[in-house]
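User: structure tokens for this one?
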Amino acid sequence: MNDSIYVARQPLLTATSEVFGYELLYRATSQAEACVDRKDVAAARVLTDSLLSIGLGDISGGRPVFLNLTRSLLLQDLSTLLKPQSAVLEILEDVVIDDELIAACRALHDKGYALALDDFVEDSAAEALLPYARYVKIDVLQHSAAQMRALGERLAPRGIRLVAEKVETQEMFEETRQHGYSLFQGYYFCRPKTLTARAVPARQLAYLQLVSALRDPDLSIRDLENLVKHDVSITYRVLRLVNSAAFAVRREITVLREALFMVGTKTIATWVTVWAMTGLNKAPGEVATLAMMRARTCELLGNKLDGNGEPLFLLGLCSMLDTMLGVPLAVALEALPLGPEIQAALNGVPGKERSVLDAVIAYERGEWDEAERIAVELGLPAESLPDTYREALRWTATIAQEPERKAV
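Assistant:
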């Protein structure tokens, strides 16, 4: 029996494309016990898994986490396992709303919890919960432009933050923003607004080549030194990292190669990859984080498949270069000496590499059945995806924080 729980996260962005918080998507794949709603099992397990197994700090980076709660959990007050400031309690559209639920939501509101109404529809039973809601989420694809505008004009003046869900294009984003929506969910931020044929700028081209070279398993100290020393900012960060508390170096470092020897090529290569990603990214910061997360998940799955996940790291990373650079993917890939298998996978050619990427993307989007189907076809156990995702999440959280704390 598969006893894993699938947990993925989707960001909520502000009007300036900064990450405000994350909604946790989840599904329990184990069988629920008799007389227990399967959704309740999933919701309860995501609470405990988020708190104990992954850690809300790693998931959110200190930002609010939106957790979907069922009617039973709301009535049992299990939500109080979380501090009010750490989570937004999201009430799904299929929850039965009656006097008992309204009383429970009033009590949570009085305790300082923020409530969100998912897939809100005007004149529905959810109207009774508006006095206690801090967020209202509205599906862009299920409402006309006039309806979106009317809801914005009605709810925004009440101090309710409006969340536009399933925002797929830049045009949707601009339209809802003008109507008073202040938070946004969807895939629009993972796509460039326009794809032109312009070349990759020289500075970003250098970072791309650096990222590619760093993934060479035969990279020597001398090769690494030659790569790093041409960028003053990265050289400075390497030296600061070596002299940080993490390595407790008690003597002055005067030669870059000496610092590289102390830390090792693999550790330094990981850090430099992160810093290079920061340098080449032109999109919202969440895109760089998602690219690193996707790259690491692909790499770990590759290790599970045949013990050679290094090439798949670049596969995941490069799959978002069009968004990060604002150019067509084909233009970005011209600058990289990628192997034929990775090139083919990025161009959509079926194969093991493409299947790994498709499984990871499906998982990111909460398309659990599709992700699991692909994993099984690859010969991986069903629990490989949730377990690998959690491991990649911890890794990404660590490297996202460390440069700020230790090396900058």
